[in-house]
Write a structure and sequence with these properties.
The protein has about 280 residues and is α+β, with helices and mostly antiparallel strands. Helices cover about 40% and strands about 20% of the residues. It has helices at about 35-45, 55-65, 65-80, 100-105, 110-125, 165-175, 175-185, 200-215, 255-275, and strands spanning about 55, 85, 90, 125-135, 135-145, 160, 215-220, 225-235, 240-250. The longest helix has 23 residues, at about 255-275.
Length: about 280
C-alpha cells in the first residue's frame, strides 16, 4: 500500500518493516535492497494504461535506467512469461497479475483502511473510524480508539443514524439530489442531545454544504460532549464508498481549532486510502 509522509510511511529507500536509521550505502540506499529486483520493478512500472506498448529506449527513459539494464530486465520478463515482444515493442502479459492479485482480491475495505487509521490515530492521538452507509445508518467497518469518546462502546458493526453523524452526512451528501430529497422528507430524526439538528430544512442545507466542501463537522449532535469531522473515501471510479472520521471530546479544542488541527491530516489519509483502492476494483466492506 502507498504510505504518504503524513501517514507514517517509510522513506524512499527504506526496506518495508526496516529500520529508518539503518546503515546505508553512499547513495543513501539500504544494503538490504536487491538492486536487480528494484530495477526490474522499475521496468514493470514503466508500463501503464497510457503506455501499454514500449520500446527498449522508451522503457529505459521511463524507468530512468541505462539501456543495458532495461534490456536485461525486459528479456527476463519475456523469458519468464511476464512480458511479450512484437518487433521493437514490449508488452506486459496478464500472467504478471499472478504475483499479487490473489492476495489483493481477498482484501476487504477494513483491511485496506485499518493501517491508515492506525497511523492517523498515532499521529493525532485521537480516535478514528471508517464506516459505510446502510439503510439510512452508518455501519462501522474499522476503528482505532485512543480513549472512549462516547458513553457507549463503539465496535465494528455498530450502527448510528446517518443524519446526526459526520460520517453519515458525508455519505448522504454523496448521493443524488433526488435520493437526498427523499431521505430528508422521510427521515424521523431522533433528538439524541440538545444540539441535534431536527429541522429538515436545516438538514437539507447542511447536506448541500457538506457536498460542496467535501467534509462534515458534527458538534455534539450525536452525543453531548462529542465532536467529529469526516471526509469521504472513493473507489477507483471516483464513487464515494465509505467515510473516515476523527472524533474527540469537546474539552480539547474549539471547533475551528479542531478542524485546523485534524482536517488536513484526515484528508491526506483519505487520499492515501483512495490510492490503495484504485487497483483493487470492487472491495467488500
Amino acid at each position: 500500500m502507498r504510505a504518504s509522509d503524513d501517514d507514517g510511511g517509510a522513506a524512499v529507500g527504506t526496506p518495508a518493516g526496516g529500520d529508518a536509521g539503518a546503515e546505508t550505502d553512499g547513495a543513501g540506499r539500504s544494503p538490504e535492497i536487491i538492486r536487480s529486483l528494484a530495477r526490474g520493478l522499475s521496468v514493470v512500472r514503466a508500463f501503464d494504461a497510457a503506455h501499454p506498448r514500449l520500446t527498449l529506449s522508451e522503457v529505459a527513459v521511463r524507468a530512468r535506467m541505462p539501456r543495458a539494464g532495461a534490456r536485461r530486465a525486459l528479456h527476463t520478463l519475456v523469458e519468464l512469461g511476464y512480458a511479450t515482444r512484437s518487433g521493437r515493442e514490449f508488452t506486459l502479459r496478464p500472467k504478471l497479475l499472478e504475483l499479487g492479485f490473489e492476495q489483493l482480491s481477498g482484501l476487504s475495505l477494513a483491511d485496506v483502511v485499518t493501517p491508515h487509521l492506525q497511523a492517523l490515530s498515532a499521529r493525532l492521538d485521537e480516535s478514528v473510524s471508517a464506516s459505510v452507509l446502510d439503510a439510512g445508518q452508518i455501519v462501522y467497518v474499522a476503528r482505532v480508539a485512543t480513549r472512549r469518546v462516547m458513553r457507549v462502546q463503539i465496535r465494528v458493526g455498530a450502527r448510528f443514524p446517518a443524519e446526526s453523524t459526520a460520517m453519515g452526512r458525508v455519505l448522504l451528501a454523496a448521493r443524488s439530489p433526488e435520493w437526498i430529497e427523499g431521505f430528508v422528507e422521510s427521515v424521523r430524526v431522533e433528538r439524541r442531545s440538545p444540539y441535534t439538528t431536527t429541522d429538515t430544512a436545516r438538514l437539507r442545507a447542511i447536506l448541500s454544504r457538506t457536498r460542496a466542501q467535501g467534509w462534515a463537522l458534527v458538534d455534539q449532535e450525536l452525543e453531548e460532549g462529542l465532536r467529529s469531522v469526516a471526509v469521504p473515501v472513493h473507489d477507483g471510479e471516483g464513487n464515494v464508498i465509505a467515510a473516515v472520521n476523527v472524533a474527540t471530546t469537546v474539552i480539547h479544542d474549539e471547533p475551528a481549532a479542531f478542524l485546523e488541527r485534524v482536517l488536513p491530516s484526515l484528508r491526506r489519509t483519505a487520499a492515501a486510502i483512495d490510492a490503495d483502492l484504485v487497483p483493487l476494483g470492487h472491495v467488500d466492506s
